[in-house]
Amino acid sequence: MAVIDIQRPRTATGARAVPALLAVLALVHVYWATGLTWPAHDERALSLAVLGDVVSFGPPVVLPLAALEGLAALAVFARVGGRGGRAAQWVTAAVAAGMLLRAAVGVVWIVVGRDGSGAAFPWLNAFLYTPLCLVFGWAALRAAR
After folding, report:
1. Residue 76 and residue 51: Cα distance in Å, rounded?
2. What is the greatest pairwise CA distance in the chain?
3. pLDDT tens per residue, the chain (145 residues)?
4. CA distance 11 to 13
5. DSSP letters of 45-111?
6. Which DSSP string do the residues of 35-51 spell out, in sequence order?
7. What are the TM regions of this chain, as residue ranges (predicted)?
8. Cβ-count burial of 97 within 10 angstroms (0-12 exposed, 13-18 middle, 19+ buried)?
9. What is the SS3 assignment for 25?
10. How many Å is the Cα radius of gyration of the chain?
11. C-alpha to C-alpha distance for 138 and 121, rounded to whole angstroms
12. Is the CB of residue 48 less than 8 Å from the CB of residue 117?
């Protein structure tokens, strides 16, 4: 009896966390679409902490983001599991590019500064958003290859 050895593609362990992060982001955006603003006390404070500027977090803005993140999570999950073909590879590469671009912009914001954003954004950007985008962007890039 012949034994067939089917191996899954070799991916970095961190690549498995990328679809989980995207799914969590999608759920957070759906949560914000309900009008709830945790962890901030109101929409203005949430916007300043998350984006460094006052922007709407209403359903017309955050629900399309949630849908995009959810679909991206599915595609990256498929890619990490060795499924999805070229489409999953391209979506995973796009996720990597988006995250690495956000990390680069985050570094610029750290160096140049970001006026008018309140106290939370510069710290969250420097110690949470930018490092996470760099790590997850790199993991997604490795998964896309």
Report:
1. 25
2. 70
3. 555 444 445 555 779 999 999 999 999 999 999 999 999 999 999 999 998 889 999 999 999 999 999 999 999 999 999 999 999 999 999 999 999 999 999 999 889 876 555 678 888 999 999 999 999 999 999 999 9
4. 6
5. HHHHHHHSS----SHHHHHHHHHHHHHHHHHHHHHHTT-SHHHHHHHHHHHHHHHHHHHHHHHHHHH
6. T--TTSSSHHHHHHHHH
7. 20-41, 61-78, 90-111, 123-141
8. middle
9. helix
10. 17
11. 23
12. yes
> Is the separation of the CB atoms in 145 and 104 below 8 Å?
no
Query: Hunting for tokens 């977090």 — which residue is that?
Result: 57
Cβ(54)–Cβ(44) below 8 Å: yes
